[in-house]
């Protein structure tokens, strides 16, 4: 939340102010806590209807056995993690302070591990104060997305301990997530609006980014924003197709997204009353999930894409906390698909759980659960979450969804080798998808010199993920040169 170094008594006071409710300042009837209103369940045969405060079931609650992420050397505090599932690893960046990283101030540390429970690699500093500009002393509160082959890190910067409403949002870029270059000429991309000067003089920061449909959506705190609570708690949303927010910027207001000339124009709508929130996009239900700290843990509040409705009642990930949570997300800031992607979502967070003797938040641990009852995959956009999944076919064969179309395999065992997962039940939306390719038993197979395997259908190649697929399909295999392999037209890309 607020940046360091400064008195930790102030930190504790601000944290308590931020843990008040899960309410919003956007509309009457916004969810508070974990149980609100009466769930509304759409009829099974009804046309697609808006989800409205549906009640989710919680299953598979989980918690690490102890601390999973920690600083090294003299890093007394560790908090505000950003967590990315990337390349088969769980990568995390968080706010800390290491004496060996100059200048003396907040640093962003990095570590990686095989799962959210670790074990994580030894922490190292990857971004520190610039020595000049808005982030001269402190860099903190990282949030990351990956667009193409470029990582974007949005971070809070401050030039001194006494923020005086000077905290602002910066951005840095990287090709590996470790070596960073400040973008936008090293200048802030979002500064405080200055709508209202309050006792909480933090400023703007604690941002969280999502990449969706070509837009970068940025959720952030601004204690000077008009729509914040009296203690400065509030979360605002800007979006832009420019990751540096230098052009084509839109702000979320009472009438939805509207173009703005500057990123610090009056902030007229807050989507949740909180500090240090994180969020992600759940594709299967076209909804944002915002994780923020409340009295008994991390509350997750849901908004539809237009921010006009809460599709689900909020849920609580219980347990100790001392600072804002970091959701486990994909490189674009989306929820990862579960084994039942239309009906189940995984909500996992890393968060600081205790304070050291000085009051600094530290001891980052993993907490999580699944929410069930999404009633998802009702539209073509939502069905994108099915990409790569196999399911029963109406022809008593097996279908795999690829880029909104069906690849139909005569043998289910072969489909399973091609798929990323297998569904026991066929989602209704799949019946509207075109069958693009049929792979019969015995289809000829080719194998490259680098041990890649594919089936030939109409002399076009469908690349498989397993060498075993040829035997399972009773296919004769022909070994081809790499040049021949590369020349085949691909059926599915």
UniProtKB/TrEMBL annotation:
Record keywords: Signal
Protein's UniProt keywords contain Signal: yes
InterPro entries documented for this protein: Glyco_hydro_beta-prop_sf (IPR023296)
PROSITE patterns xrefs: PROKAR_LIPOPROTEIN
Top-level taxon of origin: Bacteria
Signal peptide: 1-26
Record's protein name: Beta-xylosidase
